[in-house]
C-alpha cells in the first residue's frame, strides 16, 4: 500500500513497473518536488479479498494484474482509494473508472496554484462534471478539508455520487448539484452569493463516439489500460474545446466570484486553441502537463485577479510538442480580381482540400481567424506528377510499339492498362522520393492545363484524379460574395485507415495581409507530409 500519502510538495503520475513486486505510484506533478510512493500488490492482495481475486501469479511468482480489463481497473482504483485515503468508493460498471494518479495530479496542481495566491484556509472549490465517483470532491475533502461543490448533468451519476459522499461522511464538506442549465458555472451563482477559490473540470473530451475511437494517433503505441466510460461522460456537443470555451466565457462574468479558473484538456490541438482564446482576450494563464504512462493531459488555469500573475508561474512541463511542431506560415499572395478576406481565402482553401480529398473540420471561426483540423488518409498531393510521368512514358512506349508490345496489347485502350501503371507506381514508390518544390512547378501546371483541354476534348471521365485537378482553372471556387458554406467535409469512407497526416491549418488576417499556417499534429506521414500539403497549396494558389 501507499505508506503515507506524500505532503503536497510531492508528486503525481503513476507508472507501473510490472517487473517489481507491486505497483509504483510515482507522482510527478506540476509541483516542484518529486516523490515516489509504492503500492504493493502483495499487501493489497492481503488486505483486500476483491483485489486478490483479480491478481495473477506469473511463472516467476510475481503478482500481476490485467490493466486492460475494466473490471480489474475498477477494483484497483477502489482498493487504492480505500488503502490510501480511507475512501469507500462505489465505481459503477457502466461509468468511467477514474485513474487515481491523474486525479491526484490535478488536486496537487491546484494546491500549488492556491499557494501562489496565498490561499490556504477555508478553501472552497467547484468540480464541474463530478461523475459517479465524485472523485475530485472526495479527494479534495478527505485530503485537504476543502469545501467542494460537485456538479453533474447525468442523473444516474449524480445518484451514485451522492451515495459516495454519504457513505464517506463527507456531506458537511461536499454538496452535489444537478446542472439543468445550458451553463457550466453561471447558474450556481444566480441564487446564491457564492465566493469560491477555484473551479476545476475534467470535461467530456469528444465530439462524437466516432472521435473517441479515432482520436489516438496511430504513431503512438496502443494504450496499456482498458477503456472505460459512458457516452455522456466522454461526449459533449462541440467537444472539450467548446466546453472549455463555455467556461471561459462564463468566467468573464464570474471574475469576482471565483479566484482561479482551471480546466483539464485532453487533446493537444485543443490546448493550443484554448490558449489562443485566452491570449486573444488578454487573460493571463498558466499550464501544466499531467503525465501518466502513455497518457498526457494538460491543465490550464487563468485568473482575473492581480495578486498573482499566473503567466509568470513556472510551468511544470512546457508542451514540448508546441515547440517541436511550430507552425509553418506563409503570406497568402493577392490574386488579381479576387477578394482578399479570411472568408474568400477559406473557401479557396476548402476547394483545394476537397480536391485533395483531405477531410477538414472547423475548430475556430472568428472575424479574422479561421482554424481547421485537417486529416488526410492518403497522399493525393504528390502522386500526380509521378502518375502523369508514368502515363506519359506509357503513351510514348505505346507509340513506339515494340518495347511495350511484348507486355501489353497496344490495341487495348490505355485505361485498361491501369494495372501496369499502378504496378509501376508501386515499384517506384520506394525509391522515388519527390521533392515537393518541383512537384507542381509552373511548367507542370501548364502541362496540366494542356492535358485538361485534351481531356475535355476527349470527354475524359470526371472522376479521374488528374482531371479533377485540371478542372480548376475553369471552375474557380471562389465566389467573393459567398459565405463560408461548407463547415465540414467528411469524405465517405467506410473503413478508415490510420491518418497519414493530421494538422491544424489557420488562416488569419493582420492589417492588410492574410497568413496561412499549418502545424503538424500527427499521422504516419510525419511532418514531411504537412510540408508537402503546404507546398501544394502554395504552388497552386495563384492558379485558381
Ligand atoms: C469526463 S467525465 C469526468 C468525471 C469525473 N470528474 C472524473 O474526472 O472522473 C465528465 C462529466 O461531466 C458531466 N457533464 C457533462 N456536461 C456537463 C455540464 N454541463 N455540467 C455538469 N456536468 C456535466 C458528464 O455527465 C460526466 O460525468
N-to-C CA distance? 66 Å
Bound molecules: S-adenosylmethionine
Q: Main sheet? A: 7 strands, mixed
Provide the low-confidence segments as ranges.
1-38, 317-323, 401-494
Range of helix content: 25-40%
* Secondary structure category: alpha+beta
Mean pLDDT: 73
From the alpha carbons, calculate the radius of gyration and give it in angstroms.
Answer: 28 Å
Number of strands: 17
Shape: globular
Oligomer: single chain
Percent strand: 15-25%
Number of helices: 18
What spatial order of strands do you see in the largest sheet? 7-6-5-8-9-11-10
Overview of the molecule:
The chain is an alpha+beta fold and 544 residues long. 36% of the residues lie in helices and 19% in strands. The chain is built from 18 helices and 17 strands. A 7-stranded mixed sheet has the order 7-6-5-8-9-11-10, sandwiched between helices. Strands 12-17-16-14-13-15 form a 6-stranded antiparallel sheet, sandwiched between helices. Strands 1-2 form a two-stranded antiparallel ribbon. Helix 9 (239-253) packs parallel to helix 10. The longest helix is centred in the first third of the chain and has 17 residues, at 100-116. S-adenosylmethionine (SAM) binds next to helix 5, strand 6 and helix 8.
Task: Please render the helix and strand layout as text.
Elements: E1 23-27, E2 35-39, H1 41-47, H2 49-52, E3 56-57, E4 63-64, H3 70-85, H4 100-116, E5 124-128, H5 135-144, E6 147-152, H6 155-167, E7 174-178, E8 196-201, H7 209-214, H8 231-234, H9 239-253, E9 258-265, H10 268-280, E10 285-292, E11 295-302, H11 320-324, E12 328-331, H12 342-355, E13 359-366, E14 369-376, H13 384-400, H14 402-405, H15 418-429, H16 442-458, H17 465-470, E15 488-489, E16 501-510, E17 513-522, H18 526-541
Parallel strand pairs: 5-6, 5-8, 6-7, 8-9
Antiparallel strand pairs: 1-2, 3-4, 9-11, 10-11, 12-17, 13-14, 13-15, 14-16, 16-17
Helix pairs in contact: 9-10
The structure holds S-adenosylmethionine.
Residues 96, 98, 128-131, 135-136, 151-154, 157, 179, 184, 202, 204, 232-233, 236 line the site of S-adenosylmethionine.
